[in-house]
Amino acid sequence: MSHSIITNYHCHSRFDDGHGELEEYVQAALKKNLRTLGFAGHAPVPFACGWTIPSPLLPEYLQTARRLQNDYRDKIEILVGLEVDYIPEIISPVSVQIRALKLDFTVGSVHFIGRLADGTLWTPDGPVEELEQGLAESYGGDARKAVEEYFHRMTALVGTAPPDVIGHFDVVKKNNRGGKYFSEDAPWYRKAVDKTLDALAASPCILEINTGGIVRGTSGALYPSEWILAGCLKRQIPVMINSDAHRPAQLDGYYSEAAAILKDIGFRELTQIGREGRRRVPLV
Ligand SMILES: [Zn+2]
Ligand SMILES: [Zn+2]
């Protein structure tokens, strides 16, 4: 892949649930010849959570990222962002606290889709035990209801609180290997996805092709699935490739394969975010 098209706007670090210092990601990005590196640590949430940046560490994260952006400005384009959760009434990429940070970009993701009986928020992309408990306690064991709520929230995210980049569009399938909980062929699933894609097409968001499920060996699948990517092409939704790196070595994981898949589907260009704004580059 040519230098001009390798970028990554979705990487974590030791500040959240990733490994390694931010500077190690910069060094890996230089070695891998990335054009742009965007930091997207999990934004703090106002409740106990083991994988987001703890609020007291946020200033250090932002200061370190800005220092690196400046120190390396002649070598690589660095953007400072956060992966922000969308939880109605609690946090969103356009909430006052997030806007006040004056980030270069945001990745918006839906992780939380309900509360356990004790009020704890839970995510379908965590350990399978958490999913099982969440389904039982929030949705009476009905996976379809949970998945429909996931896409309902994704639709609200793009429609009412649009981030620059939509994170792992269908991560709700993470624990669904072998169709254990639902089939992506089910008419209700296709309908939920199509409705969300229609909202996405009407929004300013860029959709990421997230290779993290393959790179980290979790779901073993791309987010989103290829049939959904075909729906994106039909609607002319702009796309980019990100790896959701949790280690510096993962920065360009599965990129060539993802680019080949996009080309096979019919995509001819990628959309990137630069310090001066968006740009479109040919997918070659
Ligand atoms: Zn995420
Ligand atoms: Zn992430």
The rounded distance between the terminal residues' Cα atoms is: 7 Å
Tell me, briefly, the overall form. globular
Number of domains: 1
Beta strands, count: 11
**What is the helix content?**
25-40%
CATH superfamily: Metal-dependent hydrolases
**How many strands, what sense, and barrel or not for the largest sheet?**
7 strands, parallel
CATH architecture: Alpha-Beta Barrel
Provide the CATH top-level class: Alpha Beta
Structural class: alpha/beta
Write up this protein.
The chain has helices spanning 22-31, 58-71, 96-99, 128-139, 143-160, 187-201, 212-215, 226-234, 255-265; strands at 7-11, 36-42, 77-85, 105-109, 114-115, 121-122, 165-166, 206-210, 239-242, 269-274, 277-282. The chain is an alpha/beta fold. The protein has one domain: Metal-dependent hydrolases (TIM Barrel, Alpha-Beta Barrel). The strands form three sheets. The chain has a seven-stranded parallel beta sheet. The N and C termini lie close together (7 Å). Helices cover 34% and strands 19% of the residues. The chain is globular, with a radius of gyration of 18 Å. Residues 10, 12, 83, 244 line the site of one zinc ion.
